[in-house]
Design a protein that fits this description.
heterodimer; A: mainly alpha; MetI-like fold; 15 helices; 0% strand; B: alpha/beta; six-stranded mixed β-sheet; 9 helices; 39% helix; binds adenosine-5'-diphosphate; binds magnesium ion
Amino acid sequence: MSDIANHPGGSFYRTENIPQSPPPVSTVGVLGWMRQNLFSSPFNTALTLLTLYLLYLVVPPLFQWAFIDSLLEGESNKDCRGIAGACWVLVPKRFGQYIYGFYPEPERWRVNLTFILFCLNLLPVLSDRVPGRTFAALFLVFGFPVVAFVLLHGAFGLEVVPTHKWGGLTLTLVFASVAILFSLPIGILLALGRRSEMPVIRTICIAFIELWRAVPLITVLFMASFVLPLFTPEGVNANELLRALIGFIMFASAYMAEVVRGGLQALPKGQTEAAQALGLNYWKSMQLIILPQALKIVIPGIVNTFIALFKDTALVSIIGLFDLLLVARSAVTDPKWLGLEHESYIFAAVIYFVFCFSMSRYSLWLERKLDTGHRT
Amino acid sequence: MSEPIIRIEGMNKWFGQFHVLRDIDLTVNRAERIVICGPSGSGKSTLIRCINRLEEHQKGTIVVEGIELTGDLKQIDNVRREVGMVFQQFNLFPHLTVLENCTLAPIWVRRTPRAEAEELAMEYLTRVKIPEQALKYPGQLSGGQQQRVAIARSLCMRPKIMLFDEPTSALDPEMIKEVLDVMVELAETEMTMLVVTHEMGFARQVAHRVIFMDEGQIVEQNEPEEFFYNPKSDRTKLFLSQILSH
Ligand SMILES: Nc1ncnc2c1ncn2[C@@H]1O[C@H](COP(=O)(O)OP(=O)(O)O)[C@@H](O)[C@H]1O
Ligand SMILES: [Mg+2]
């Protein structure tokens, strides 16, 4: 204190700088974290203890049921007598159906191959460690569906497997990925159209979006499945799966459009103006300036829609498409597996969870990676 | 006298019912530097934004570099290539690095090869004295640095005309000078400049002509010395007394 000429109530001046020092120990490290986040106040402490108690009540018995007292191998529900926990016996026995539906066994390698190719195509789109993102993304939308169709449906000498034999996780993934793949670009175009200065385009886009959003998805699926065939001319008998898929894509695009529009509106007008002033035309400024930023802002919303779409595919079971949920449901109507509903549905739920949770984690990772700190 | 680089005749503009620009006549010669001032809401921004068609005028003619601004999109694109603009809010692209901000338009509009565009960008970033920031993102820079990047970004398109809309108004006081210094150096390159600003020191040092606007009209224009020491109109006198008193 002696270096500061300090007169109480009077003027003072500083002659020496206060050096930087580390923060108090109680705020750093694991203990510091726990103190700040779990025990920061009496109320918070009570909540923490209550949560621990609830976890103690729920988790050990669940674990016991699923993994300790359970049975994995067996021939039918008769083997489940005397088993206190989960009786998973139908899962390994019916595994093929959960994954492939009624896709003929000798041809199932085609499904696996399609899945592997899909992942390979997706890799450069999702990660920038692998080169060729633009090409991969374009191929995913314009090329891959053809490849997938040839492989899954069959052509050029491959035995034809009609779509009503597709099922299980395969059908769910086909539905979800096609809907996701197409709804994003269509949604972007609709969102741009809705903000267009040309009244005709704007009106069409608004009408399209509002129409599809105002109808429940289940109605769309019913219409596509039962009503549409009444209006199509004789002979033009579009495939049932395709009809449902198109309805699903339209519905998804309308939602996606509104998510994207939210991002477009969040951008300051100056971004468009700066792009224009530099001489970029409309499409270039959208592609290079506006969309990269707008889409980044709405990543959580986009992925949220993707996840919702993925789970909404379960609705196609109502129009008789044999997706993962319908497999899970019909498996337990077999007298052999009667009474194993819990196990069947839980297994399906775990599959849904794995996919949806991965999408959610990817979105968080992407958000962090794209954060260039412009909010500072 | 050669043909003026900008010729505005009988230009009028409305926002809905609001008559924001009224009978504007203005010719700008090559390498001329003009400072535009006037009270807030007098139409200064709107006037210079009409020159690169960020705003559309409804009556009269605007000819830039021999190209008349009409609804023709091709003409508009051609004009925008020749005209650079610096905004009050910088409007850098936050998802791109400083270097990418500068190379974007040359690559995509002028089709300059990337390597050449980067070389050009580094040259201009050096001119605005921040070459070492090239790989940072705009969000990591101070306001003054961002505005200098914005100037460099415009210059990379090698424009013939530069428009500035209150380039220092959003800056903290200690950063105003670094931006003005860059603009003064730019003035020495014989660039045609239209600058909306209330920095009177800059106007005196750099401008050939000062234009005073009020209520959508050009009220007075003169050489800087005459304008500041011998204003003719009462409105100019009132305005000058207000901005010079603090
Ligand atoms: N897009 C717009 N729509 C309606 N009114 C506007 C718009 N832009 C500016 N104005 C109005 O036009 C007038 C002139 O604006 P502006 O040119 O920005 O003035 P200055 O730059 O001189 O402050 C102001 O009254 C402003 O409110
Ligand atoms: Mg203004």
